[in-house]
Amino acid sequence: MDFINNTLAVFPALILAVPVVVQLALGAMILALVLGLLIALARISAVKVLRGAAVFYLEIIRGTPLLVQLVYIFFVLPSIGIQIEPVPAGILGLGLNYAAYLSEVFRSAILSVEHGQTEAALSLGYTPTKTLWKVVIPQSFVVSMGPIGNYFIAMIKDTALTSVIAVTEILKTANILNSETFQTTAIYTAAAILYLIISLPLSRIVVVLERKARSRG
Amino acid sequence: MANDTNTIISVRDVHKTFVTESKRTMWSRLRGRAHVQKRVEVLKGVDLTVHRGETVVILGSSGSGKSTLLRCINKLETIEAGRIYVNDHLIGYEERDGQLVSEKASVTAKKRTDIGMVFQHFNLFLNKTALGNVMAPLRDVKKMTAAAARDLAVPTLEMVGLGDKMDNYPSKLSGGQKQRVAIARALAMEPSVMLFDEPTSALDPELVGEVLSVIRKIAQQGTTMVIVTHEMQFAREIADRIVVMDQGIIVEQGPPETIFTNPQHLKTRALLSRSGFIPKGLADETGLSGD
């Protein structure tokens, strides 16, 4: 079968783009986790200004498409003198976007830790800050493991959007191949399968992590 | 300040009011009506002194303020008036021109290390094993090394009879075992007083005994304890002094034998008769009562 052979023939070229995808997804995820936690803490903080700023950020990010945010970072920021290379721009765009969604995961996870544990920690001499970092947040991480994993998988697929800001990830590589060889069906089928190959094992890992977290709790 | 060195807890004229805001309905919001505040005075001037090595049991019907009093002693609840001293330290507040001002949280935290508390619902850290629960405050608060914390945590867990359950997570422990881990966790901090807030109320009847016997064991070691409980027989047997609360005040206190055999206050008699300790008729008589 020509189709199968053609599809298989495309893989070596596409696989070269996988490291870029990994770089984008890992970089953006780390940024999103750190920033997301900070936003979540701001949202539950006693300081009104922090709460307001967090909600403002959340609404801006959730109210605009990720694709527009990426384009904005890459094409608009240079006009005010901020020039960012494609891959860092992709990491920044994905990270800032996912931070908003992860902050909601963290916020509900933090609130889901029963208040009794906070009281126990306080009664044992933990300061409120230490209670948050040593008792509440570690447990909220366990609760948020599943949702975080699912967002990570979604993010891997969203790296395809960075093709519009000149990142040579899988889709961009496929586009280039397509313009050279015009084997459209084989190339994009191979690209789709490659995404599947990356995300399927990850979803299995997420399921296992969730089960593990639940058996402990 | 408290008077003598033998005094561990000194509660002076403490007042506490719970303020609950009624739900704001859409209608009241549209009309711009102010919130309706409901104020319930739960402690109406409580005085209590607990001496070193003493076991004090607080009895009272629900809503009498006994748990609230206990929670005020380590400032899990704020108070409006009065003073609470533990080991001569004013708890939770600084005094400025005779006024109570909340002190820094880190200062309160330091004072709390000297006050152990056991809760009705255990409140174990669910992401840690039994051993992890006991070690956590030793590491995080007392800054012990892992080895030193373990050397203290292991014998404490063995003392409460959980030497073989140290690596179990709370989800793999029974209620009675969880409560014993919670007791070990508080005890390992070597506080000068232990507060027990209805430690057996959330347990299945067949698990109550194992927790009570651990508390008994701690009492025999001379630990100062304040226990809020509904277990009358246990109270009678373990207490050096029984304190009876009703509607936010202490109505009667004394040695258990006096309280159980010759209760003076009507509420005490009602309480004892409800749990079958004195015949119903006696509780209904009003002639004996001082109030």
What keywords describe this structure?
heterodimer, A: 217 residues, mainly alpha, 82% helix, 0% strand, B: 291 residues, alpha/beta, 6-stranded mixed beta sheet, 4-stranded antiparallel beta sheet, 11 helices, 26% strand, disordered C terminus
Order of helices and strands of chain B: EHEEHEEEEHEHHHEHEHEEHHH
- Rounded mean pLDDT of chain A is 93
> What best-fitting shape of chain B do the alpha-carbon axes yield?
globular
| Global Rg of chain B | 21 Å
* Oligomer designation: heterodimer
Name the overall outline of chain A. Answer: flat
What percentage of the residues of chain B does DSSP assign to strands (E)? 25-35%
Order of helices and strands of chain A: HHHHHHHHH
The amount of beta strand of chain A, in percent, is under 5%
**Number of continuous helical runs of chain B:** 11
Helix/strand/pairing class of chain A, anyone? mainly alpha
Largest sheet of chain B: 6 strands, mixed
**Secondary structural class of chain B:** alpha/beta
The counted number of beta strands of chain B is 12
- The number of distinct β-strands of chain A equals 0
Poorly predicted segments of chain B:
286-291
**Percentage of residues assigned to helices of chain A:** over 70%
Can you put this structure into words, describing what you see?
The complex is a heterodimer of chains A (217) and B (291). Chain A is mainly alpha-helical and 217 residues long. In chain A, 82% of the residues lie in helices and 0% in strands. Chain A has nine helices and no strands. In chain A, helix 6 (115-123) packs across helix 7 (128-158). Chain A is flat. The N and C termini of chain A lie far apart (52 Å). Chain B has 291 residues and is an alpha/beta fold. Helices cover 35% and strands 26% of the residues of chain B. Chain B has eleven helices and twelve strands. Chain B has helices at residues 26-30, 66-73, 105-112, 130-140, 146-159, 175-187, 205-220, 232-238, 256-261, 266-274, 280-284; strands spanning 7-21, 37-51, 55-59, 81-86, 89-90, 93-96, 99-102, 115-118, 193-197, 225-228, 241-246, 249-254. Chain B is globular and about 60 Å long. Mean pLDDT of chain B is 90; it is low at 286-291. Chain A binds chain B through residues 114, 116-117, 119-130, 134-135, 138-139, 142, 215-217, and chain B through 74, 76, 105-106, 109-110, 112-113, 115-117, 119, 121-127, 136-137, 140-142, 169, 171, 182, 185-186, 189.
